[in-house]
Amino acid sequence: MANIDDYNAKLAEIQAIPDEEVKEPGIPVDVFLQEAENLHHWSLDDSDSLKVVGITKAMIDELPVRAGACREAQSIWNKDFRSQQEAQQQWGEQSPIAYDLRNDLLQSLRFAYRNDPALLGRVSAITDGAGHADMIQDLNDIAVLGRENTEPLLAIGFDLSQLDLAATRADELADLLAEANGDKADNNESKVMRDKAYTHLKALVDEIREAGKYVFRNDQKRLNGYSSQYWKKLHRKQSSNSTETAE
Do residues 198 and 32 lie in contact, with contact meaning Cβ atoms separated by under 8 Å? Predict the structure, then answer.
């Protein structure tokens, strides 16, 4: 099956995993997926021996299906993560312009309402606070205040369309900031689903590996296929670095 078919086939099981049981990947997902595929082919040759300890042929055949589901979930998460990175770049480009717009509008409001203490007080209230979220709220508050009190603005030749621009930018920037911060529901959901799909696959990988290590505990050749080559290489590298440091 295609990865999307595997994903749809296992979606209900993946979603049913309790949040407290979800594990984040401890190694690069692409590496883990390849190790799961390798384990599938390796354990197929040992299916008769593994059956004795409860690992059925159906369980072995389940490995590539769960791997396909996890690969699809990873792709979805990668797409959303790239979208977040793109949003961060856009925010970096657009936020300085938005700050300049807010500051310019505040200057216009202060001048237009300079003879009205009540309106000046409302302008001052808008300037309270700091940060990106506050700037976005300021733009919307400016639009509301200006629309309610247009005559002094018209008297100084102010372009009222700037108020519409402020309101529009407030809406757009709120969404952009949420995407840049990874606070959008879609981003969070895809991350959770990726982790659940990984957890779903890891549970079966661990079960088959543990069984294989027991069954072939006295057969080094077959035993080798039931260990993570990623962790083996990492441990060898760490051991080598430790030896060099000691020397």
Answer: yes
Contact 112, 158 (CB under 8 A): yes
Question: Using CA atoms, how far apart are residues 238 and 244, in angstroms rounded to an integer?
Answer: 10
C-alpha to C-alpha distances, 158 to 111, 139, 150, 175, nearest whole angstrom = 11, 16, 9, 28
- Judge contact between 226 and 212, C-beta under 8 A: yes
Question: Token pair of 3, please?
Answer: 């990865």
Phi-psi region of 56 (alpha: psi -120 to 50; beta: other; left: phi over 0): beta
Name the one residue in this structure whose structure tokens are 């102010």: 158
CA atoms of 54 and 122, how far apart (whole Å) = 73
What gap in Å lies between CA 179 and CA 33, rounded to an integer? 28
pTM flag (> 0.85): no
Q: How far apart are CA 41 and CA 225, in angstroms?
A: 10
List, for residues 132-170, the tens digit of each pLDDT value: 999 999 999 999 999 999 999 999 999 999 999 999 999
| Cβ-contact 229, 34 below 8 angstroms | no
